[in-house]
Design goal:
Radius of gyration: 21 Å
Largest sheet: none
Number of strands: 0
Structural class: mainly alpha
Number of helices: 17
Length: 388
Amino acid sequence: MQMSAVIFVLFSIYGVISSYLPLIIRALGFSATATGFLMAVFEFAGLIIPLVLSPLVEKTGRYGFFLLIFALLMAVVPFPLVSNTNFLITALLLAVFSVGYKGSVPVSDTLTNIMLGDRTERYGTVRVMGSIGFVVTNLAMQFFFNLEEQGTKVLAWWIIVPSVVYAATILLAPGALKSYPSVPAPKDKTEKPDKNILKEFPPVYWAGIALIFMGFFAFVPVQKFFSMYVTEELHSNTTSLMWAISATSEIPFMFFSYKFIKKYGSLKLLIICTIAVGIREIVYVACPNVAGAAIGQLFNSFTYGLFHPAAVFFCTEYAPQNRKVLSMAFYSIMATGVSSIIGNAVCGVIIDSLGYKPLFLIFAAIAFATAALFTFILRAHIFPRSKD
């Protein structure tokens, strides 16, 4: 698989950023509130700018070339980022880094599927290399890196080196730098343009998108602020280990997610996983120690390992046949992107005002309320009556 090494190294970078980005910002002297807003800027730039670039990437078909640009951005930003304490400059640097960081995944996914040709069912065997890279990097950092002792400039090298290696793997991957321009679909002259595309989606689709939005929103304290919780509340240097546990737990569940989806259906599974988000956050409150944090991380098997594939399946299952690409855009932008942007800003304020335990309790309540509300709203689809 030509892209296996590329995916492995890319998600090695994700392993560093997922674990340490909020800690980098905090180490620069920013409050939790400021950190939340800076993380929101990071998410916003990573959502909007790659979206604007995507038509150009698809039109030219030069996926490998854009991946090289993204790798370059990730390689040059870390040192200026850790050497600066100005809020606006930090926001700008985070936005630039986010373009490379967030833009790499959809482009590499598209290139991987193009290079697989008619063997796209093997995508999972390539993508699993990303999870392995994430775990390996976090385990290595657990043993060989200590933020308090070595500081952010040493941490910058943990981002720069894999970014350079990432660029090298793109250059060496057979066929990665070839041009794969998209072929325009033939236009149906009899088809009349629909002025309101949104009406093509059934009401259950929008209810499901709202459920996914709220599920991801409830998940933000864990997904974005867990590293700060472990470092500042538990006073532990096990951040990397905790993320390795999290990523490892999701692998088998993601691999066999199709079995769960087939048995329970996507909507019921989304409800179950949203409840799991709440339980995970309650665990952190009930067991405020390293052992409790580790137990909570095991819930990632449900809160991402099953939630993500169930959400993706839902978006393809309930979307009109000719709107599946648009449906996935709604998922990426509305359900996951916007929820993360809002959640980051809100969580930072709550941490400064109330602390971590109230943060987890508030968002656990949101998760449970979301599950209850949408179980009622979608009851006809979650518990369909058997036909006699």
